[in-house]
Write a structure and sequence with these properties.
mainly alpha
Length: about 100
Amino acid sequence: MLLMGFGFQSGLNGSGSGVDGIPILHQRLYQFLACSLFPFVLRLPPVKRWVADKQKEGRQIVVFWAVLPMLLLFCLGFAFILHEEFFKGGALFSLHPSSE
């Protein structure tokens, strides 16, 4: 986030065009937070121990259902990042770069 900027959107200037009607999801800060939560939580020592204990017990399905909401949040945040990169990158290759 420090390298890319926080990307707060004000009107149409910001990290997304806001054309899909969901401008809050185009805030770069929220995208990076959504993508960072999943690896951050899985690195916490109590979580690592809990996951290891459940795997030793043969209850991987419990770990799967506990991790699934964070994984879905990660995918949602990353999808908006990819969407932005795809359309800005496509405009660059067609020699019509975005004004952002």
